[in-house]
Fold this protein.
Amino acid sequence: MFREPHLSAIGTLLFASAFSSLSWAQDKTQPPPPVPPVLAGAEITSQLNYSCPSNTACSFICPGGIGGGADHVTKLTIYLGTMSLGNDQNAPALFYDFSTRERPNSSGFSISTGLSTLSCQINGLTLDYVGRQPRRRQGSSPETQ
């Protein structure tokens, strides 16, 4: 029901703000961090990593959740994918982890019912990486990868 066409629309919305630096971000040699184990129930298809240059006011907002954003952001990771709703139905989902000067570990999410869009406004942050996550090996745990 909510498969590939919706995910490409979500990706298009998120990439629009960073379109000019997309190819530069893919050429970075540092591999992305692994998907957090808490997202094991989601099918993550894309990841975007951002960092805030020093002496810059950085913020983001991802509408759809209560307080879906922050000021004084130092780093932000966005995961795009789907979340199983049971009965062979998947919904587009956006998960994010971020750090601020005041709080080192914070997170949030937004799951679409198909009637809304998933998007984020990113201010002042630099796109460091965008791409797909490597597939997990069968039978391996997050600690052994």
Summary: Strands lie at 42-51, 59-61, 69-71, 73-86, 89-100, 106-111, 121-123, 126-131. The first helix runs from residue 4 to 16. The CA atoms of residues 5 and 128 lie 26 Å apart. The longest strand covers residues 73-86.
